[in-house]
């Protein structure tokens, strides 16, 4: 079988590479080109240079969406990972019902973002209506509503990753620390967390990228209201491209800037967390 695989591997690789090229590489390259064009459809694109990028930064909603998204990413990064790690620690103890609790906490991740947004919108509006407030009329309420929604959705998934990391730590390290007289806190900070850095790298990467790419929940929960104050980057790009006639090129330019920003931030995060990983 190994000889057959070595001989015929191009046959198996070709369909996947063809699909990847058609579905990702070609649209990606064409999208970069269109960011330098004025167009309404692909066939009538005319090259205009960097004017789309200039217009993108002139649009006051774009820098605000970037700042709003950055703050949101930082807050959710801290909350999601702290709470997920705490749950993972609790659910790796020898207590009854841990498998049931793991399933319950993971289930929100299986629900679609649009559905989650509308469900939480009903919950928040039902609560805030008693205080003569509304989620879409208050930017602070909208921000924290998005934070609560994302925490509720993503904590269970990150918890599973942390549980896998905790279970991979050799018992001999914990036993050696206990023999040396290390208490629970010292074992946590000097044994558990350093050996959990690969899992922390994965979870922080996923949390940051998911926060920056957030679209479904933002669209259904707040829709960017009031007056685009809770509009995140993905929704801002969508509104520019599909909501403004003649601004398709500007929307495409925003998408390229968004892509570059996410790449840079993700690379910095990966480099920072990977430098803290210890060798087993």
Keywords:
mainly alpha; globular; 280 residues; 2 strands; 12 helices
Percentage of residues assigned to helices: over 70%
Q: Characterize the overall form.
A: globular
Total helical segments: 12
Q: Mean pLDDT, rounded to whole units?
A: 88
Low-confidence stretches: none
Going by helix content, strand content and strand pairing, the class is mainly alpha
Q: Nearest-angstrom radius of gyration? A: 23 Å
Order of helices and strands: HEEHHHHHHHHHHH
User: How many beta-strand segments?
Assistant: 2
CA distance, first residue to last residue? 34 Å
Biggest beta sheet attributes:
2 strands, antiparallel
Fraction in beta strands: under 5%
Strand order of the largest sheet: 1-2
Topology at a glance:
Layout: H1 2-34, E1 37-38, E2 46-47, H2 51-58, H3 61-90, H4 98-106, H5 113-128, H6 139-168, H7 171-179, H8 184-195, H9 197-212, H10 216-221, H11 233-243, H12 248-274
Helix pairs in contact: 2-12, 3-6, 3-9, 4-6, 6-9, 9-12, 11-12
Write a structural description.
- The radius of gyration is 23 Å and the shape is globular.
- It has 280 residues and is an all-alpha fold.
- A two-stranded antiparallel ribbon has the order 1-2.
- The longest helix is centred in the N-terminal third of the chain and has 33 residues, at 2-34.
- The protein is built from twelve helices and two strands; from the N terminus they run H-E-E-H-H-H-H-H-H-H-H-H-H-H.
- 74% of the residues lie in helices and 1% in strands.
- Helix 3 packs antiparallel against helix 9 (197-212).
């Amino acid at each position: 079988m190994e000889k057959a695989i070595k001989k015929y591997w191009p046959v198996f690789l070709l369909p996947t590479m063809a699909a990847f090229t058609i579905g990702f590489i070609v649209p990606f390259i064409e999208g970069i080109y269109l960011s330098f064009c004025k167009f309404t459809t692909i066939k009538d694109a005319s090259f205009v240079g960097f004017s789309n990028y200039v217009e993108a930064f002139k649009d006051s909603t774009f820098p605000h969406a970037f700042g709003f998204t950055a703050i949101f990413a930082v807050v959710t990064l801290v909350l999601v990972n702290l709470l997920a790690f705490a749950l993972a620690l609790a659910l790796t103890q020898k207590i009854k019902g841990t498998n049931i609790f793991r399933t319950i906490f993971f289930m929100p991740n299986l629900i679609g973002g649009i559905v989650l947004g509308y469900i939480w919108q009903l919950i928040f509006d039902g609560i805030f209506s008693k205080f003569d407030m509304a989620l879409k009329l208050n930017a602070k309420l909208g921000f924290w509503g998005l934070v609560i929604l994302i925490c509720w959705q993503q904590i269970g998934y990150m918890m599973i990753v942390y549980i896998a990391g905790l279970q991979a730590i050799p018992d001999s390290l914990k036993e050696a620390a206990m023999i040396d007289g290390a208490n629970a806190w010292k074992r946590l900070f000097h044994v558990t967390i350093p050996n959990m850095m690969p899992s922390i790298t994965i979870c922080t990467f996923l949390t940051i990228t998911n926060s920056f790419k957030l679209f479904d929940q933002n669209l259904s929960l707040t829709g960017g209201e009031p007056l685009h104050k809770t509009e995140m980057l993905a929704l801002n790009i969508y509104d520019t491209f599909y909501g403004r006639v003649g601004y398709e090129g500007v929307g495409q330019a925003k998408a390229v800037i968004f892509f570059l920003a996410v790449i840079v931030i993700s690379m910095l995060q990966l480099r920072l967390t990977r430098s803290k990983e210890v060798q087993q």
